[in-house]
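TASK: fixed-backbone design
INPUT:
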């Protein structure tokens, strides 16, 4: 019997792990799952297989307690063992890990070894919400699947095409030359995936398209794509810059952290934690759940209404900047948890952009039908698309190309 080569893709975060088992030949998803609430008082584990059979694990804390990533990946290993016992013609050939920051060293998928992992570990301070979970996932998989080739695929890869006059900051040369201070950009896997999906939907070659892509989730970033390549993006040296996010401040006068440190005497570590974990939507409303914020705003909650106004203002500011920067825009794209689900955010972001050829269809915006949904009005010069992102599938594609 001929075996089917498959890749296991792991998207490990600070308190969650998403995973998919993907057939390399045709990108069929054979198994997918998600573990949420790692290290919290309770956790959920959901897994489904390609034939439609679904097992959902939402047991009491005593039965589903997942204290760390080691325990989470042991659950995943159990899923895989059960799956492979029932599917003897399928063989795990490669494991791909999403890694948020590749720094100034990694510009493409790289096979993992001790030296590579040590370098990734040295970037943890640049992405404190993400890299610890990425690294924990890598280390655990190296123990559990030691015979399988494993690769890191970086969120920064897609943005390597950004030109120097955009990725450089106007800071002393020593900062750039000796410390790597420059714009790297993040959410590259998502921006890359939705750009490819848009090209397919529009039936046009990607290398001829100018796009504005908005990845809006707990983390959020905008990307200007010129001729199919990343040209500019809102995130910078770390995932802290740019749009207002769930827990992160986004754009901020660089003097503010210095002033707060001077006035309060807090440490650099405390300051970093507040900017990365206690800012953004959480700072204004106490929650990063946009659905809850929207409900509260509809009930007259002033903080919730303020948060939505702040969030949308920053979105519109980047959309406007990229409309000017690109000159011609072939599509405006929303993706990510908020981008795909919060119709009010899409509506407000596109409000009054008609003079620039961007006109939303309010009814279509409220009723998405497909993985790629068009929500623009017939008189809109610029298509407006909502595209369901798939970072795991993009990781599989990038590794397949590399191999």
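OUTPUT:
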């Amino acid at each position: 019997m001929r075996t089917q080569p498959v890749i296991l893709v792991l998207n490990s975060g600070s308190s969650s792990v998403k995973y998919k088992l993907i057939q390399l030949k045709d990108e069929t998803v054979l198994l997918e799952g998600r573990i949420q609430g790692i290290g919290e008082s309770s956790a959920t584990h959901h897994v489904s297989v390609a034939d439609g059979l679904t097992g959902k694990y939402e047991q009491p804390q005593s039965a589903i307690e997942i204290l760390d990533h080691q325990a989470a990946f042991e659950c995943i290993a159990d899923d895989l063992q059960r799956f492979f016992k029932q599917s003897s013609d399928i063989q795990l050939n490669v494991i791909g890990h999403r890694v948020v920051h590749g720094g100034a060293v990694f510009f493409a998928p790289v096979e993992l070894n001790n030296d590579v992992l040590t370098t990734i570990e040295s970037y943890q301070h640049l992405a404190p919400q993400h890299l610890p979970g990425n690294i924990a996932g890598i280390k655990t998989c190296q123990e559990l699947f030691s015979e399988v080739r494993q690769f890191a695929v970086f969120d920064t890869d897609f943005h390597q095409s950004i030109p120097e006059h955009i990725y450089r900051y106007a800071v002393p040369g020593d900062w750039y030359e000796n410390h790597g201070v420059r714009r790297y950009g993040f959410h590259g896997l998502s921006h890359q995936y939705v750009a490819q999906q848009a090209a397919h939907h529009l039936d046009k070659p990607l290398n001829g398209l100018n796009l504005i892509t908005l990845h809006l989730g707990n983390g959020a970033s905008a990307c200007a794509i010129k001729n199919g390549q990343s040209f500019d993006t809102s995130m910078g040296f770390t995932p802290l810059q740019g749009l207002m996010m769930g827990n992160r401040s986004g754009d901020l006068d660089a003097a503010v952290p210095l002033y707060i440190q001077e006035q309060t005497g807090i440490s650099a570590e405390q300051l970093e934690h507040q900017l990365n974990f206690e800012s953004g939507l959480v700072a204004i409303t106490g929650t990063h759940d946009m659905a809850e914020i929207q409900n509260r705003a509809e009930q007259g909650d002033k903080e919730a209404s303020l948060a939505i106004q702040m969030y949308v203002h920053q979105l519109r500011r980047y959309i406007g900047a990229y409309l000017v920067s690109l000159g011609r825009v072939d599509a405006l794209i929303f993706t990510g948890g908020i981008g795909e689900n919060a119709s009010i955010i899409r509506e407000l972001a596109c409000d009054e952009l008609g003079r620039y050829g961007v006109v939303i269809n309010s009814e279509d915006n409220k009723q998405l039908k497909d993985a790629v949904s068009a929500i623009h009005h017939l008189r809109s010069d610029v298509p407006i698309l909502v595209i369901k992102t798939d970072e795991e599938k993009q990781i599989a594609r990038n590794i397949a190309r590399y191999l």
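COMMENT: Residues 57-63 have pLDDT under 50 and may be disordered.
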